Amino acid sequence: MITIRHAEKEDFPWILDLNRENEIWLTPLDEELLSALADSAPMFLLAEVDGQPVAFMIALRENNQVCQLKVYQWFNERYSSFLYIDRLVTHETFRGQGIGRLLYEKAVQKALEDQVPVLAAAIETIPYNERSLGFHKAMGFEEAGRILVRNETVEVSLQTKALDSAASRLARIRDNEKKSHTVLYTLFYIPFRHDNGFIYGLPDADISYKFGK
Fold first, then answer.
1. How crowded is residue 74: how many other Cβ atoms within 10 Å of its Cβ?
2. Structural domain for 73, as ranges
3. What span, in angstroms and rounded, lies between the C-alpha atoms of 37 and 64?
4. Is residue 95 classed as helix, strand or coil in its secondary structure?
5. 72: number of CA atoms within 13 Å, CB side?
6. What band does 122 get if pLDDT is binned at 50, 70 and 90?
7. Which pTM was predicted?
8. In this structure, what CATH number is given to the domain that contains residue 14?
9. How far apart are CA 55 and CA 59, in angstroms?
């Protein structure tokens, strides 16, 4: 039976070992950094099968003061509200059994509860991480950009998944304002310039929209 729970300090040795085994795809972790990430992360989950740890996930919100990764900062500069999957690792013996999907579903649930409009993740393309790229495509992620990291020896695909909710759509409008500065506010409506016209939305309420010349 698969169970998912909050990871505890007692789980750190197993988590660090699993991360070390997968450093071809992951940035290194030591106990000090893991502890700091755990304290600042809204999601630090451990998956178990019949009581045996098999996977873990760390997810971070925007403006996290611990994570200094270039990929995280890329999202932080462009999105006002997001949930970044810092790392999700499944032990090789248990891959392909839907455990990663269950953890991602937990992330989607958490994001929707907190009215976060975007899930974000970074996946290596050089070297080519075929398994992770295929997984994220199946989960509905789309590429938003690419950058080079680790002294420009690794290429990373920066991907996002937009969450379809009224709060999410409103937050995306605000992100577009942050990027383009073309949103005009009134007391009751938020008109957002679109290529084909305007989108009209009520703040803190369900968004109605209309396109027109």
1. 20
2. 2-163
3. 9
4. coil
5. 19
6. very high
7. 0.76
8. 3.40.630.30
9. 14
- Domain assignment present for residue 145? The answer is yes
Question: What is the per-residue DSSP string for 139-208?
Answer: TT-EEEEEEEETTTTEEEEEEEEE--SHHHHHHHHHHHHHHH------SS-EEEEETTEEEEE-TTSPPP
Q: What's the pLDDT tens digit per position in 133-190? A: 999 999 999 999 999 998 899 999 999 999 975 455 555 566 666 555 544 333 333 3
For every residue of 100-157, DSSP letters joined together read HHHHHHHHHHHHHHTT--EEEEEEEEETT-HHHHHHHHHTT-EEEEEEEETTTTEEEE
d(CA 36, CA 211): 46
Cβ-count burial of 13 within 10 angstroms (0-12 exposed, 13-18 middle, 19+ buried)? exposed
What does each C-alpha distance from 52 to 11, 23, 103, 110, 166 come to in angstroms?
11, 22, 16, 24, 39
